[in-house]
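Morning - pyridoxal-5'-phosphate inputs below, output right after.
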Amino acid sequence: MCTSSDPYGWIRQSLKTIHKANWHRTVQPVSGKSGPTITVAGRSMLNFASNDYLGLAGDDRLVRQAIAATKTYGTGSTGSRLLSGQRPLHHALEQAIAQLKSTEDAIVFSSGYLANIGTVTALTSRRDLVLSDEYNHSSLKNGASLSGATVIAYRHCDLEDLATQLVAHRTAYRRCLILTDGVFGMDGDVCPLPEILALAERFEAMVMIDEAHSAGVLGKTGAGCAEHFGCGHRPMVQMGTLSKAFASLGGYVAGSAELIDFLRNRAPSWIYTTGLSPADTAAALAAIAVLKQEPNRLTQLQENAQYLSEKLDCTVLNLPLKRQQIVKRLPSDSAIICLQVRDTATVLRLGNALKQQGIFVSVVRPPTVPVSRLRMSVMATHERSHLDRCAEAVEQVLNAIEAS
Ligand SMILES: *Cc1c(COP(=O)(O)O)cnc(C)c1O
């Protein structure tokens, strides 16, 4: 029997709504290797939009190791780690991560997203409480809702609100897990980790920190926020990705030997998915080795971020008053630098104007963030002249845009 209504018709309506709100997004092809300059849609541009913080995604040493691993082990790992998917490279990578993080052990997932989903669902369930920073990454939020635990979002980096929620709710639940990004990916600020750990201790709660944008970026050896704050030795669940500073693919959790053994037995997104490919595993392993051999990459990254951050602070401060109402510098202590822009139409125009000037930045809009922004990420391999050109271009487009 046929009916006249189209069960997929709502998709067209929904897309119309997305377009109307200026929320519609499309992909932009980048050709060639990643680096401080890249080719976007056939045009060479300065790259301020990648997560390749250490500038390793195009590094010959990583490329060679990935090729060697492919020649040795083939292209796929052919099964889940517990069945046929384990290679010696996986163990070597997990040991290298544990060493970098100064933890007893580590476990590598096939992506950071899977690491978060698998870990949060393994650690909590229906009788438990998850307290999650409102700006946490989508993978932490989805992990929390999949777990079946009661989830409460506390205000962004607000310790008072976190304490209030703990006082009000902690005793009604069996376990409690506090979730926070280390560096917030769409803002660039750093979580108050020592204070969060202190509250967790007081209320017998676990803490899981997502170091996606801080591992390979913060800390003396690049171990992330935990090292930056001198908290690496505290009991905690330290998650991170291999897809950003480590220029590959995959995610990890580092922590006590018991925690890691437990995850191998209880994290569904590790047990029931194919192991990381030999090429990705070898590339990540090579990235960690380069970070150790060339600590100046890390200091250069930190210096570059500081330099561009200060330049953009000046740019915004020097804007005519009327234009200062359009943009706002968000506080940052990382390699992510954001300029919040009042509305989506303006942020799109600014992003396009920067592209015209050969500067590639991310335009981030709702629903990813509450208020639109231009997001710039700094690399260790940016030269001073690249950073200067970026700051100059931002100044120009901010002055040229119609203050409507
Ligand atoms: C990128 C990111 C992830 C996901 O990592 P992938 O390896 O890309 O899947 C998780 N958490 C945060 C905070 C991220 O920025």
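Note: The mean pLDDT is 95.

O.
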